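Notes from the 1:1 (GR / supervisor)

We went over the backlog. Supervisor wanted to see one worked example end to end before approving the batch request, so GR pasted a single chain during the call. The sequence is below; no edits were made to it. Supervisor asked that the structure be written out right there so they could see what the output format looks like.
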Amino acid sequence: MIVLGIDPGVSETGWAVLESSEGTPVLAASGLIRTSAGTPLAERLVTIHRAISALIEEHQPDHVAIEEMFFVKTANTIRATLQARGVILLAAGQKACPIHEYNPRTVKSALTGSGSADKAQMQKVLQKALNLEAMLKPDDVADAAAIALCHLRASRMSRMKVLERFGGAK
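Structure output shown during the call:
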């Protein structure tokens, strides 16, 4: 399974592609989509849409996992981030990629067992789970990888429950 994890933002959108075969996740690629504050919002949104579309085309993910809006800063930040999420969802929808949304507490809980885990705990889990030599930087990229890993784990749990229900696994 290939999952494209996305941490949406207008200035910086983090992304990470995780591949999992036999239950072992591997970080295949990651990065940051940056837009300049002085650029009109419409142009920034076009940049994000094009970049996400290109990532989907290049990596052919089976699923896209994206962070839900969870915390509030300012009205302008909320509005712009929601618009960035919109163009990301549009890009995934245009490529017929199933979209899964996770709030930060769910991601933290799935990876650490605590919905209030801090960034350092999350980084340690990611580093170990993905067998990385160094921590992922910047935080937006690490968050995207965490979202993708959360989806891989949630998918694995769902498959196990189905198999158990129908007698395929004990």
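Supervisor's comment: Strands lie at 2-7, 12-21, 24-34, 63-67, 99-102.
Batch request approved.
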